[in-house]
Write a structure and sequence with these properties.
Layout lengths: L13 E6 L4 H18 L4 H21 L3 E5 L2 E4 L2 E4 L3 E7 L1 H8 L8 E3 L7 E6 L8 E5 L3 H9 L5
Parallel strand pairs: 6-8
Antiparallel strand pairs: 1-2, 2-3, 3-4, 5-7, 7-8
Helix pairs in contact: 1-2
Length: about 160
C-alpha cells in the first residue's frame, strides 16, 4: 500500500505565523511626536511644520513596521525575530500568562536565554533548546497567542 504524502507538511508550509505588532497606544505616540514637528517649525513656516510632521510620521511608522518581529513555525524550523532554529533542536515549550509571564521575564530569567520580548505583549512562551553545541538554554518570546504557538511547536514535524 502506498503512503499518500499529499497532506504531509513540507518545509515551506507555515504551521503558525504571528507578527508582534506595536500596541495601539504606540501609534498614538507616533502621531503625537509627528505633531511636534508642526509645533516646532510652524512659527517659521506652516508649510515646513506640516512637512516635518509628515516626514516624522513616515519615518516612525516605517521604523515600527520594519522592527516588528515575526514568529513563524514550519515543518522544520522555528523563526523568532532574526533567529532561527531547526525544530529537531527544540525541547519542551510552555505558555505563561500574567504573574507567571512576569516571573519568566524577570526573577526566573536565565541571562543566556534568547529573548524576543515586547513590553506591550504580556504572555510569553518558553522554548527549551536541546542542542549541546548551543549555550542558549531556551528562547523566551512574547506572543499574543501562547497556547497556539505551543501547540504548533509540539505538533509532529516532518524530517
Amino acid at each position: 500500500m502506498r503512503h499518500n504524502d499529499s497532506n504531509a507538511l513540507r518545509p515551506t508550509d507555515i504551521v503558525y505565523a504571528e507578527r508582534l505588532w506595536p500596541a495601539f497606544w504606540m501609534w498614538l505616540v507616533v502621531i503625537g511626536i509627528s505633531a511636534a514637528g508642526i509645533l516646532i517649525l510652524a512659527p517659521i513656516s506652516i508649510v515646513a511644520g506640516f512637512s516635518a510632521a509628515v516626514v516624522l510620521l513616515v519615518l516612525q511608522a516605517a521604523f515600527l513596521i520594519m522592527s516588528t518581529p515575526r514568529i513563524e513555525v514550519d515543518a522544520s524550523t522555528l523563526t523568532v525575530g532574526r533567529a532561527s532554529i531547526e525544530r529537531k533542536f527544540i525541547g519542551s515549550a510552555a505558555a505563561f500568562r500574567d504573574d507567571d509571564a512576569f516571573a519568566q521575564r524577570g526573577p526566573q530569567l536565565n541571562g543566556l536565554a534568547y529573548l524576543c520580548l515586547r513590553g506591550w505583549i504580556s504572555p510569553v512562551v518558553r522554548i527549551e533548546v536541546q542542542d549541546a553545541s548551543d549555550p542558549t538554554p531556551y528562547w523566551l518570546t512574547s506572543t499574543r497567542r501562547p497556547e497556539q504557538l505551543v501547540a504548533a511547536l509540539t505538533a509532529s514535524s516532518v524530517e
